[in-house]
Structures are given as structure tokens and as C-alpha cells.
Amino acid sequence: MAETIFELSGERISVWYRLAGNQNDAYATAQVICLEQTVEFPGELVPKGFIQDEIVGRIESFEELDDHHYLVQISYAVETSGFELTQLLNLCFGNSSIKPGIRLERFALPAGLSKFFRGPRYGRNGLRELLGVAGRPLLCTALKPMGLSAAQLGDLAYRFALGGIDIIKDDHGLADQPFAPFRERIQACVAAVERANRETGRRCIYIPNITAPANQIRNQALFAKKAGVGGLLVSPGLIGFDSMRALADDDRIALPVISHPALQGSFVINSDSGISHYALFGQLTRLAGADAAIFPNYGGRFSFSREECHQIAMGTAAAMGPFKLIFPAPGGGMNLDRIPDMVAVYGRDVIFLIGGGLHQQGPDLIENCRYFYKIAEQF
Amino acid sequence: MAETIFELSGERISVWYRLAGNQNDAYATAQVICLEQTVEFPGELVPKGFIQDEIVGRIESFEELDDHHYLVQISYAVETSGFELTQLLNLCFGNSSIKPGIRLERFALPAGLSKFFRGPRYGRNGLRELLGVAGRPLLCTALKPMGLSAAQLGDLAYRFALGGIDIIKDDHGLADQPFAPFRERIQACVAAVERANRETGRRCIYIPNITAPANQIRNQALFAKKAGVGGLLVSPGLIGFDSMRALADDDRIALPVISHPALQGSFVINSDSGISHYALFGQLTRLAGADAAIFPNYGGRFSFSREECHQIAMGTAAAMGPFKLIFPAPGGGMNLDRIPDMVAVYGRDVIFLIGGGLHQQGPDLIENCRYFYKIAEQF
Predict the structure, then answer these.
(1) Quick one: CATH architecture of A123-377?
(2) Using CA atoms, how far apart are residues A225 and B33, in angstroms rounded to an integer?
(3) Do domains B12-114 and B123-377 have the same CATH topology?
């Protein structure tokens, strides 16, 4: 087979993997990853020259973490990504996701790839500006439970907005169900929040769930935009990271995007496989254009540790080429007592997402929101 | 909160989950799933009547599998799915994917939901008819390694087709890279396969990879269709199950679809979480319209067991409402010696996917294909 002469830029993507096993096994796994993620070909048959030298992944460093875990940095020619997110994901972890003992820890993109991504359109500063809230943590809640009518959800939204919530999002299970159809729900909730904003003088936003059939996503987003929503809720685990990216990039939509972790759990709940919390909810979510990443807070009804949550916060804020910092949005069974410790972990650049806990606080929902607001104001 | 009066059909979706833990813990987990997957609300606050009775998931059965595992059947009102795949996935496993000890084993859809899905357009019989191959296993190989030019890939395709391969697919890492641009590659490979078919009188098909940026998928598929490809390769783990469904359903495209498991590994490699092999590669892949499901064969360079692979084959063929049976397509480091045992596991309704192994067999690629064909013909 003749050698291909193709002029590469020389820029390379770096991916760090955490490998389980003894040193020899881990190093052998690292060598396998170099082939598996690129040529998918027996090593001895890889054509010499261009393909072997440039296309096959390259081990850049290999270090011991503990006596059963190693960290390897593997680099790939930037051209193998096709300069787009779907193939980038595939390149970094497609087939290796199917092998035990390999965890994608983090990645670094060269400038020649980053320039193809817009990243978060608003980021922390843009979202704060939109909401008119400087400094303090942002307050978010969800419209639930599923089964309420559009009018009932609108009524809830009105009370949340009156009580001082900044971001009112659909529960991620609200789709286009007959008991609260998508369009009816959007109109009811937008109207409710606008009415409350006229009364309070504040700028609360309503964020509907746009996680929908692939061929309806854009139309739903355009409908929502026209109706006056303040952002979009998207579950990239359900529709793919690049569908979220396409929504965030769309200049006809141009709304903040908040990501939800539905169906992404299998990537993170086993520490010797999958994708790290830092890379999944921090780096990838950010690269795919979300302005905030929802994830389950430690100590709630999910199992993330305080340290894993801290890692997510780091991923939302770490230096990452030209991309804006985004908000961590911990939620999932948290309640108001947890806020001081959460500020210790996340800092003030955080969105507190309290759903059921806000209802549990007491019988008057508006009063509960005001209490939530008063606590957040202290930080 | 007033009770919503909404007339439900009474039809329910059943989902079976395998729960890790002792009996008390497993039952408590089952109760939590009923709330988590629907109302996401504290149980004591769920509005009585319609929501508590109809919207919250319902435990239908609970049985011991072994002293640390239980199988629970939970049913959901069909309306909570919104009658579409994205929300159905979310309903079945969205948030519960984030909790350890819960594995989605299988599901059953009522007729009122199945009728909203076309399922596989071709299925086993349709694909056999298209290829003109009755009875014997189908032969598939992949164009690789990444780094070859479009002309070189076309040359490979020509030799594979001449040697008797039925389905020549892109390696799933071939996207739109500068060394073999998508359109150029499609045209070179279609032309090569057509030329070989004229010489052999057979009906080999070329199946390009259509896993692409969200807003380019349909255009790429339409381009490929017009160019004369015989099907589409899609990685639903990368672009979402419903994007595959939309391609398969599209009457302007109307091509067979083969799914690839890239990035789906995290769902299956830990037996106490994620989704079963049966449900992921069998039921879901089929519901999302694929005509064949690629997955890593046992004993290759991946870790699936013979029994897990058998379960996948069962999922491709089990009774499932109106949906056609699809082909299991085991691959991933298999070689020709494995074929007799594979027929024992999968039967004759199988696609043998041999990539690198076909190159390893000997120096003459066409001869290697003929040898592969001769073995398959015996079954």
C-alpha cells in the first residue's frame, strides 16, 4: 500500500486516560488505545510512514498514580478529529468506552481545533448580565411534578418568579405530553414569568426543556425563542453533545443553554471506566456550548462525592483556550441547609438548583422562595 | 394544588430493572425509581389523585434473582413518554442512570406507543433481498486504516467487493477528515463497488459513516443516497438514538441503517449499572430503526462474554410488537477461525464483520475475501 503524502499541521489533541492495572498491563492498554482510537488495525499491519508516524495515537507521557492506576497522555493529529465535535468525541473515547479499566480524565485542544468552536455564548458573565445579578449565587428551580397541566405549571412559575427565583426551568421530564403540551406550556410559563417580572421589576427567566425528537429540536427552540423564553434546557446524554452545540451556536436562537445530566450517569458512576466528572460535566459540556451544567450535588439523593462535585466546578472554570467559564448548577435532592457548605465547595459563581426541597420548606411557596433568596444574598 | 383531570388511555410501558442490594434496599430503590423517573418529587408531596395514581411509576412485580440482586418490573403511563423516543429513553433510564446498582434489563411497549415507531425499514428479510443472499451469514468488512486517501479506500473497496464481501462499510472513525474528505470518499467507494459488481454480477453494497455534526447529518445522508450508497453507518452513542431513528424513518433516504457501538461502552461494561446488552444493542437499536447492530464479539479484543453476545442476538430477534427482526453484526478483533463457534451462538442470520483479521489472513486481500466467503457458504 503506497504511502499517503498528506501535509498535516503538526498540531495535536492531548487526551489523558486513567488506566487500571499493573504497570505492564496499563502500558499495554495505552498502546492499544493508540491504535483503537485511530486506525483500528493490527499494529504490525499499519502502513509505515504517514499513518504509523502521524495518524496512530502517540504516548506522550505515562505516570503512576497508585500501585493499580496509571495516567497516560496520548496525542492525536488534530486532522483526525475532522475539526468537529462528533468525531472528536469518537476519537477521544468511541471504542475505548467499550473496554474496562479505561477512564477519560481530561483533554486539551490545540488552537487550530478550538477555533472551530464557539463554546458557551454567554458564560458566567453573560448570564449574570442577562439576569441583572452581580456577585451572589443564582437561584434556580424546576417546574414539577409531571402530570400538572400547562396552566398549573404557569401558576407555579408565577409564584417562583414572584418569590425571587432567577431561573425557572422545566423539569427535564417535561416533553410534549398531552397533559401539558409543549407549546401550551411555553406560552403559559412565559406569560406567568413576564407578569411576575412586571410586578417585581426583576429579570427572572423561564427555560423550557428542548430535548425532543431529532427532527423537531430546532423548530421547538425557534418556537420557544419567539415566545420569549430566556434560555433552553438540553440533555446531551439523550440527544447527543453535538445537538446541544448546534442549538447553542444557532444565531437565530442565540439563547443561554443549560445542560441536564439525564442518561449520562453510566459514564461517571464507575471510577475505573467512563469519563471523569471534570471532563464530562466540565470540559465537554462547555465545549458543546452550554452556559451552565446541571449535575447531582453531593449528599443529595445521588451518589457523587464532595470531591467529584468540586472537580466538576473546576472543569467549568479551568483555562480552556478561548472558551468562557460556565456555571456549575448542583441539584438533585438538595435543601436550603446545605447552602453554606456548597458555597465553600463551589464559590459564589454557582447556580443553586432546588426543586422538591423548595416545596418541603413550608406551605407557602412564595415565602419559601424568599427565604431561599435571603440565604443566597448573604454570599 | 387542584387535581388534574386528564383522560389517560390506561396503556402502560413496562420496564424491568435489575437492582443490586439486599431485599429491603432493592425494594426501596424500586420505590425511588417510580418517583425519580416521573415526578422527581418528594413522595409525601406528590399530589393525590391523578398524579399519584397514574403518573408516578408503579411496581408491577418484584422477584429475587440471587441473594444480592432483584428484578423489578415498573410500569409507566404511556402518555408520560410523549410518544417519542427521546423522552421514552429519559423516562426509562434518564436520572436512574446516575444511581449505582440499577440496570435497565428490558422493556415492553404497549401497542399505543409502538404504532408511533416504524422500526427497522428493511430488517433481516429486507436486507437479504437487497443483497440477493438467502440463507447464509452475510459478510461485512470495514475500510481502514484511517489516514488512507479516498482513492486508496476506493481501491480497497474494489478488492473487497471482487472477493465476495456483501457489505463494505467505512471504519466508524472515517468522518470528514482532510486526508479522505467525505464526498470524495463516497464517490470513490461507490464507483469502486459498482465496478466490481459489474464484474462479479453480485450486489455488494457500500455503507458510509454518516455520524456527523448534528446539522449536517441529513445532508450527508442525502448526498450519499444520491451518490448511490447501499446503506448508512450510524453511531447512536455519538449522535443520539433519535438521530438514527430520524435517518432510518426518512422516506427521501430510505436506506438500510447499521448501528455502531462507539461511546456506548459505558452503558454495558459494568454489570450492576447501565443498560443490558439485550436492551441496548437489541431492543433500543431496533426501536431506533437500525437493520443491523454492530457490537464487539466475545473473545476478540473487547470483553463481552459469549453469553452477553447471545443475549444481544436474542434482543435482535425477540418478539417486539410490529418491529422487524434485525441482524446481529459481531465484530471487533475476530478472525476466520471463530466462524463455526459464532454460528453456534448467532445462527445463520448474522453479519460477520471482519476488519483487520481479513488483512492478517494472507498477502492477497481478494484471496482472503474468497476464503472468508467459502467458509460462510458452508453454513
Answers:
(1) Alpha-Beta Barrel (3.20)
(2) 33
(3) no
The rounded mean pLDDT for chain B is 96
Supply the pLDDT for residue B357: 87
**Residue ranges per structural domain of chain A:** 12-114, 123-377
Flag whether residue B105 sits within 8 Å of chain A, measured between CB atoms. Answer: no
pTM given for the model: 0.97
As a three-state string, the secondary structure of chain A is CCCCCCCCCCCEEEEEEEEECCHHHHHHHHHHHHHHCCCCCCHHHCCCCHHHHHHCCEEEEEEEEECCEEEEEEEEEHHHHCCCHHHHHHHHHCHHHHCCCEEEEEEECCHHHHCCCCCCCCHHHHHHHHHCCCCCCEEEEEECCECECHHHHHHHHHHHHHHCCCEEEECCCCCCCCCCCHHHHHHHHHHHHHHHHHHHCCCCEEECECCCCCCCHHHHHHHHHHHCCCCEEECHHHHCHHHHHHHHHCCCCCCCEEECCCCCHHHHCCCCCEECHHHHHHHHHHHCCCCEEEEECCCCCCCCCHHHHHHHHHHHHCCECECCCCEEEEECCCCHHHHHHHHHHHCCCCEEECCHHHHHCCCCHHHHHHHHHHHHHCC
Over residues B21-52, the pLDDT tens digits come to 999 999 999 999 999 999 999 999 999 999 99
B363 lies within 8 A of chain A by CB? no
Q: Do B267 and A266 touch (CB under 8 A)?
A: yes
- Helix orientation angle between B306-317 and B339-346, rounded to the nearest 10 degrees: 50
Mark yes or no for CB contact B93/A50 under 8 Å.
no
- How far does CA B343 lie from the centroid of its chain? 20
CATH 3.40.50.300 assigned to domain A12-114? The reply is no
Contact A270 B273 (CB under 8 A): yes
B68: confidence class by pLDDT, cuts 50, 70, 90: very high
Q: Quick one: what percent of chain B has pLDDT higher than 70? A: 99
pLDDT, residue B4, reads 56
Instruction: Inform me whether the C-beta atom of residue B176 falls under 8 Å from chain A C-beta atoms.
Output: yes
Which tens digits make up the pLDDT trace of A9-26?
999 999 999 999 999 999
What digits encode the pLDDT tens for the residues A144-176? 999 999 999 999 999 999 999 999 999 999 999
